[in-house]
């Protein structure tokens, strides 16, 4: 079977898991092309107005796969962590297959993958998904174990600083080689800019206007929440009231770490216009967390109208300001 995976939302977080699982069960995985003006236009036209641009882009990617595949896989991420208190993902992730189903009439069959770790373990959801392709439990179990391994390696590569595309390309590369490569990249930069946001905003090159590329051109290394160990985020969160949204908790924890970190020279806070959860985390980060910290932070709100020039100008001005500030500080410390 040809299974399409839309290049949007949590594609950037879980793609190697999904791909390995489906390919091990003899499917051909087709990923929609990178976001461009047409994908965005199709998404905007097929979606209700008052939803975030990240979901609109996902709709555009679904349309890009429409006549190419037998199935389109759409995850329904309800809860992605099992803890003492109840946590969920953004309501759009929970309702994503329903939104797609009710907006489009002539799509290939939707392959729904529900993850609800508060109520059932991941392997159960995997078995339900894979029963569409195999009745052999051992085969599904082996594919599941293999998919977990790929995901683990992918997350390690993200921690080394590779983008999701770069990490996918290096999944077969020996770990030491990838580590050396990432260290070389790191040595090239004289500045570290943390970007606080969701992976589907940071790494969608059309939406973020290739933020990582712009920073690399300016010799600045980009640090993102996916590069932090889970323990670091957990320790930071202990200082704040509990939040119900898993991915937003990660943002608050990462933001708290970045704002205090001596390694970080400045922070770009990429916010999605019309994002419900972000409207709360933004306030927490900019009011509560920021109060206790010194590192400069620049909030940047993006939506479907964000222009390339405005975005680049603001990023470049911020990086220049941070670099000047850093060299000024170094001169003062040197003088003392
Ligand atoms: S968290 Fe915000 S940006 Fe992400 S899907 Fe939900 S509303 Fe959209």
From the structure above, extract its key features:
single chain; 336 residues; alpha/beta; Rossmann fold; 2 domains; four-stranded parallel sheet; 14 helices; 8 strands; binds iron/sulfur cluster
Word description of this protein:
With 336 residues, the protein is of the alpha/beta class. It folds into two domains: 2-156, 3-Layer(aba) Sandwich (Rossmann fold), CATH 3.40.50; 184-331, Rossmann fold (3-Layer(aba) Sandwich). The protein contains 14 helices and eight strands. It has helices at residues 11-24, 37-46, 53-65, 91-103, 122-130, 137-159, 164-169, 175-187, 199-202, 211-217, 230-237, 246-260, 276-291, 308-335, and strands at 2-5, 28-31, 71-79, 109-116, 191-196, 220-223, 266-272, 297-302. The strands form two sheets. It has a four-stranded parallel beta sheet, sandwiched between helices. A four-stranded parallel beta sheet has the order 6-5-7-8, sandwiched between helices. The radius of gyration is 20 Å and the shape is globular. The mean pLDDT is 90. The protein binds iron/sulfur cluster (SF4). The site of iron/sulfur cluster has 11 residues, from helix 3 and helix 13. Residues 52, 54-55, 90, 92, 198, 272, 275-278 line the site of iron/sulfur cluster.
